[in-house]
Amino acid sequence: MECKIIADSSCELTAEMKKSMGIEIVPLTLRLEDKEYIDDDRLDVLQYIKDMKECKTPPKTSCPSPAAFLNKFETDKSIFVVTLSSKISGTYQSAVTAKNIFTEKSKNYIHVFDSMSASVGETLTCMKINELAKRGMNEDEITRNVNEYISSMKTYFLLENLEHLAKSGRISHLIAKVASVLDLKLIMGSNGEGGIRLVEKVRGYRKAFNRFLDACSESGVKLEEKILGIAHCNCPDRALKFKEEVKKRYNFKDIIIVEMSGLTSSYADEGGMVIAF
User: Fold this and answer.
1) Are the C-beta atoms of 4 and 77 separated by less than 8 Å?
2) DSSP 241
3) How far apart are CA 91 and CA 97, in angstroms?
4) Labelling 87: which of 8, 57, 118, 197 has CA 20 to 30 A away?
């Protein structure tokens, strides 16, 4: 079945993925003080990370307008939209509003998925839609199977730096300072409902890296049926090392590595990684 897949800019893709699946991206807007950045292919993420480090205030993000989604809906194909978790962004609601406007004048099938994740979790969701469409499933079958896939997905974050979380008010400056002094690394994960929970605080990157590896085996998921997605913020060597160690321990169906977008980099910061499966 032919379909059109649309996602917001938290969905991180290689150029090859975007081309092979025909995915169109609706970008979020990022702000550092009075400077605005559009989180699309033209964004220099490394420069954005540098600008973040020099900025005294936390980065701010704005979700796409319904009109931005509507502009992508011009097609005769069935449409599937994948967004950031509705628990952490208004992007899902914006896409749903666009869908409601669209269906008033079009009979095209359209469904908006709340990924209940972010970053490479969205990537895997888009890959699942593409896989099922190529297998010839109809719209209802794809929607049902992808919702089941989303419900079973596990997402984990390993944060190198807590500075931006402190700036944004998500943790206290005192905790960030203590973590820096004690070299504490936070492992965070999805709470099963689209929100974020603290999984563990580990002292030292090496221990945190190993615990991040352990998270795969502690998930209770049949890994041989899963694709592992790894997203990194300007730390390709760490991502490759993680992939190598995973291959030694586990039997994932496949492993992909992508670079973080500007949006995900706003919170993960340089050295951070996200995994999903």
Assistant:
1) yes
2) H
3) 10
4) 57
- 3-class DSSP state for residue 73? coil
Contact in structure between 160 and 205 (CB atoms under 8 Å): yes
Q: Cα(179)–Cα(257) distance, rounded to whole angstroms?
A: 28
Mean pLDDT, each 10-residue run in order, the chain (277 residues): 97 95 98 97 96 90 98 96 96 99 96 98 99 98 98 92 66 69 84 86 92 86 93 98 97 98 92 96
Q: Which amino acid is located at 228 in the chain? A: L
**What φ, ψ does residue 29 adopt, rounded to 5°?**
-110, 135
Residue 210 structure tokens: 């190993």
Torsion sign, CA atoms 152, 77, 84, 22: positive
Q: Contact 5/130 with Cβ under 8 angstroms?
A: yes
d(CA 122, CA 91): 13
Say whether 33 sits in a helix, a strand or coil: coil
Nearest to 25 by CA among 74, 100, 81: 81
For the entire predicted model, the pTM comes to 0.93
Q: Give the per-residue pLDDT at 20.
A: 95
Any long-range contacts for 198-207 (C-beta under 8 Å, 24+ apart)? 199/156, 205/160
- Taken in order of first residue, the domains within the chain and their CATH numbers are 3-28+63-151 (3.40.50.10440), 155-276 (3.30.1180.10)
